[in-house]
Every structure is written in structure tokens, then in C-alpha cells.
Amino acid sequence: MAKIRTTYCMRTDVMALLEDAEKKTGVTKIRLLVRAVRKLVKHSKKYIQFSGRIRYQKRFDDKTKLPLPKKRVKVRLWEGDYYYFQDFRRVCVLSISHVLAIAVFTYLQEVVDEILTNKANEEEDGDNYPIGNYAIIKKCIKNITTFHIWWGLPRDLQDLFDY
Fold first, then answer.
1. Residues with Cβ < 8 Å from 134, sequence gap 6 or more?
2. How far apart are CA 10 and CA 15, in angstroms?
């Protein structure tokens, strides 16, 4: 699987949280970010919105009304991770930067706690694999083409064939 180079616009407070987490855990910022997004996808129901305009991060501070500082960040993601992010963005009608910010603010501390707990218990941190159980399945019925996105496997694999 190839890596894809891309650029995101991240708020500096999001970057600071990732940098702090990287120092605490020894895990790279991009791996921490991917793990936080995985957790976000597991709890995605509250973010799903199939239509409307793309929702972006706040651009101005509520109190000061000044622009929130941002930084353009270049990243290299595994192809599966990249498409996973893109599909989540489409389903939730959020910008990628907003998806990443939500994941960091909501789930990064949980990711850090898991990593530190594993280290304290002298257990290996086993979550360094590319996203698994993710697929896009194309199905044609008469002259209509549909795509089904799978974010995990059903308990009964027969469900994949019946769908």
C-alpha cells in the first residue's frame, strides 16, 4: 500500500495537543491522529449529516473575535488511512481539518491514556497497523451503480454477500 502526500490546515492549538501527546508517548503525531480519527469513526453517528454545506472549523475566537491561528501541515498517510478520512468527511459533510480537530479534541487524550497504560503494564502497543476491515464495494443493479462503504466487518460475514 502506497503513501499519499497531502496538506491540511490545522489550528495551532490542535498541533500543540498532538506535539504534547507525541512527547508523552513517543508515538508520531500522524499515528496519534489516525488513532484518534478511528475512535471518532466508531462514534460517528452523532456527526453524520448526508446533505448540506460543508462545515468548517471555527475561524474566529468567540471572545476576542480575532482569527484563530492556523498552520499548513504536510503529511504522508497510508492510502487506506487517506481514503478513510475522505469517506468520513463526505458522510459527515465536514472539512478534513474539522474532522481532525474534532478527533484530537475529543479522543486524543483517550489514545494517549491507552498508550501510557500499555507502557506502564509493559504491554506492547499493538495499534500500529494500517486501518483494517475497511472496504468500498461497488454493486450494479440493472443500470444503477452503488457503492457501499464498510468501516468494520459484520459479525456474520454472510451479510457482506447478501447486501
1. 80, 83, 84, 150, 151, 152
2. 7
Backbone angles phi, psi at 41, to 5 degrees: -65, -35
What three-state secondary structure class fits 118?
A: helix
Report the alpha-carbon distance of residue 85 to residue 7 in Å, rounded.
Answer: 13
* Among candidate residues 8, 24, 26, the one with its CA nearest the CA of residue 99: 8
Nearest one of 55, 87, 60, 72 to 6, comparing CA atoms: 72
Outline where the chain has alpha helix (H): 12-25, 29-42, 79-92, 96-120, 158-162
For residue 80, the tally of other CB atoms under 10 A from its CB is 18
Please state whether the predicted TM-score (pTM) of the whole model is above 0.70. yes
Q: Return the DSSP state at 50.
A: -
Per DSSP, what are the bridge partners of residue 8?
Answer: 73
Any residues with CB less than 8 A from the CB of 7 and at least 6 apart, and which? 72, 73, 74, 75
Q: According to the per-residue pLDDT averaged within each range, which of 27-36, 44-53, 114-123, 148-157 is highest?
A: 27-36
Opening angle at CA 159, ends 79 and 38, nearest 5: 35
